């Protein structure tokens, strides 16, 4: 008795492994953004005008 077509398919060819699931683009972009944030050094503080330094020093002397 001949085998049915479905039986021939399953026995004739071994089942190939399923491909691994890929990484979602959202997760990939989030990982890249996190890596960039961690590896980027902090910015230097903005230089204040000399007038602000004088006012801060004056306020400090008055408080003491």
Q: How would you summarize what this structure contains?
A:
Residues 1-64 are annotated as: Disordered. Helices cover 58% and strands 0% of the residues.
Task: Give structural notes.
- The structure is a single chain.
- The chain has helices at 5-12, 25-39, 50-63.
- The longest helix is centred in the middle third of the chain and has 15 residues, at 25-39.
- It is mainly α and 64 residues long.
- The termini are far apart.
- The chain is rod-shaped, with a radius of gyration of 34 Å.
- Residues 1-64 are annotated as: Disordered.
- Residues 45-64 have a biased composition (Basic and acidic residues).
Spans of 5+ residues with little confidence (pLDDT < 50)?
none
Number of helices: 3
Give helix % range: 55-70%
SSE order, one letter for each helix or strand: HHH
Structural class: mainly alpha
The N- and C-terminal alpha carbons lie at a distance of 107 Å
Strand proportion, as a percent range, falls in: under 5%
The radius of gyration over CA amounts to: 34 Å
Biggest sheet statistics:
none
Topology, number of strands: 0
The best one-word shape is rod-shaped
Average of per-residue pLDDT values: 76
